[in-house]
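Work Package 4 report. The design task specified in the project plan requires that, given a folded chain encoded as structure tokens, an amino acid be chosen for each position. We show below one input record used in the internal validation round.
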């Protein structure tokens, strides 16, 4: 039977609870325990796939095709494991399952209630998930902030869980904020006290408190938190702002979190082996060179919807000893004022990420055209890949080329709905999702990067390259170097004459890990680092397709 660590959040959202949960997992993993992580999201959606990423953050796609909360991505990156979709539990899933049981007659004659039926379902799910792969320790992060109505059943389930499993098998960690008043510089503990009071009122006593604060907690405030929150002083830790989030496990362990938690869970003392992780942190910190990347999208300022893209770029930057500076460029602007696209000449690389709908599409196409004709390294992801195909098609003379997603009655839909999608009416979980095998052609950039003939990458899309246009495109210079589904589906495009003009139908960012960057991202950042030269309009590239006609 696994041991469990519940992680709750207090005071306010957005204080990095996911990173702290993942860090605690890492601290235990480097002590030789088999660790997994579970995220509970108290909203009623069945999964994150139907939520707005611009409000809720990125939809992270798992290997088994789950559309999950972005914290699952944080767990994967910290723990270097593939987390299955069953590890993202939502109220939608819990209630649906309870209601299905009720309809089947499983509770015949009973009044179905939050306690015990909903809380039993929550606990069952936690036990089921932690039994997979002989897990030693499961970190369970409860989303939201203590005091939210939605999270009450989960906190109640956590209380019951400790009662049932025994105190030595379950530990509670509460993550709070300790603000500092600018005028006097005093660390204020009252919000933490209130938040823990609320938690204890529900019956959950924290064993560990991790306070987010600007500077390490001074002894006074630390003692106060311990006393008022009924926690051992040795169980109060600080998480300060850091240069890279990957420092977080090290900084918490330096304060003694690992030893304290082992003792609390009655696990024999083990020494951590931080060697590999320490090196990863070092490479993420020691970045001599600088490289400037433009991410061209819509609502571009909301970085949270592309966390995995950000992290993949950083992983790739670390491998090239370069600090990646990202700037988000709104492609709508290129539509209103086409000249604005010239801003891209300031950058060493242009990335067009995934996206949906028609707004900003023409601007993205313009950005890709500028990158292609000025030989600025370009990486397109999913929608960015599709727009790359549209851009190239127009360039070789298919003037009205478009994507059926952008223009439903396009005369030249070089990107079209996948045939299996035409019958699909429901929106939830119905895209082409998760890992699919891709066959890579030898003697291509893709092969140079992956160094393998077959790879598995994760997908989330409904549209694809229209097979009718493939020969027209390839006969005029575009190379599809990766394909899937018996070579029917185009997965990777590249332009051999450019320094790096590369795009993928899949989202390689979901498999990038610190210390093991995703090959397409690595190729892109490396090309950007190598090409830090003034940008000149290259006639060689403008003629690229024309010459092959
Ligand atoms: N909207 C496109 C599609 O559904 C691309 C999706 C994406 O970028 N994730 O195919």
């Amino acid at each position: 039977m696994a041991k469990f660590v519940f992680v709750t959040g207090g005071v306010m959202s957005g204080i990095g609870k996911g990173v702290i949960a993942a860090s605690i997992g890492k601290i235990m993993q480097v002590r030789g325990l088999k660790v997994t992580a579970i995220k509970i999201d108290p909203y009623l959606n069945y999964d994150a796939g139907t939520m707005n990423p611009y409000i809720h953050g990125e939809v992270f796609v798992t290997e088994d095709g789950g559309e999950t909360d972005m914290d699952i991505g944080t767990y994967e990156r910290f723990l270097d494991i593939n987390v299955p979709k069953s590890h993202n539990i939502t109220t939608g899933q819990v209630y649906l399952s309870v209601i299905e049981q009720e309809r089947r007659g499983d509770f015949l004659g009973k009044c179905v209630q939050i306690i015990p039926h909903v809380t039993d379902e929550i606990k069952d799910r936690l036990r089921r998930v932690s039994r997979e792969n002989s897990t030693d320790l499961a970190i369970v992060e409860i989303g939201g902030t203590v005091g939210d109505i939605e999270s009450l059943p989960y906190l109640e389930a956590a209380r019951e869980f400790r009662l049932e499993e025994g105190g030595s098998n379950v530990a509670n960690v509460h993550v709070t904020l300790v603000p500092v008043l600018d005028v006097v510089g005093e660390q204020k503990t009252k919000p933490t006290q209130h938040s823990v009071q609320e938690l204890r009122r529900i019956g959950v006593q924290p064993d560990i408190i991790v306070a987010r604060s600007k500077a390490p907690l001074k002894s006074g405030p630390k003692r106060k938190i311990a006393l008022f929150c009924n926690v051992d002083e040795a169980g109060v830790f600080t998480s300060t702002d850091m240069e890279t989030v990957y420092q977080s496990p090290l900084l918490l362990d330096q304060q003694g979190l690992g030893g304290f938690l082992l003792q609390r869970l009655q696990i024999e003392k083990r020494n951590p082996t931080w060697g590999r992780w320490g090196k990863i942190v070092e490479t993420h910190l020691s970045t001599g060179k600088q490289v400037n990347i433009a991410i061209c999208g819509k609502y571009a300022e909301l970085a949270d919807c592309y966390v995995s893209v950000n992290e993949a770029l950083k992983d790739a930057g670390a491998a090239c000893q370069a600090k990646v500076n990202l700037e988000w460029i709104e492609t709508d602007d290129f539509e209103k004022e086409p000249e604005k696209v010239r801003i891209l000449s300031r950058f060493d690389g242009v990335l067009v990420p995934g996206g949906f709908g028609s707004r900003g599409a023409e601007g993205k196409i313009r950005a890709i055209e500028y990158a292609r004709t000025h030989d600025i390294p370009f990486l397109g992801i999913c929608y960015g890949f599709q727009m790359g195909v549209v851009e190239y098609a127009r360039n070789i003379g298919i003037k009205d080329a478009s994507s059926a997603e952008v223009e439903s009655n396009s005369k030249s839909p070089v990107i079209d709905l996948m045939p299996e999608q035409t019958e699909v009416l429901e929106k939830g979980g119905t895209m082409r999702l998760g890992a699919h095998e891709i066959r890579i052609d030898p003697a291509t950039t893709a092969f140079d990067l992956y160094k393998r003939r077959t790879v598995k990458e994760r997908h989330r899309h409904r549209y694809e390259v229209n097979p009718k246009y493939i020969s027209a495109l390839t006969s005029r210079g575009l190379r599809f170097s990766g394909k899937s589904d018996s070579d029917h589906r185009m997965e990777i495009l590249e332009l051999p004459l450019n320094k790096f003009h590369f795009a993928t139908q899949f989202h390689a960012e979901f498999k990038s890990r610190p210390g093991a960057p995703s090959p397409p991202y690595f190729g892109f950042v490396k090309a950007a680092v190598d090409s830090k030269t003034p940008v000149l309009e290259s006639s060689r590239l403008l003629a690229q397709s024309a010459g092959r006609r």
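The pocket of glutamine is lined by residues 354-356, 382-383, 405, 460-463 (CB under 6 Å). Validation will be extended to a larger panel in the next phase.
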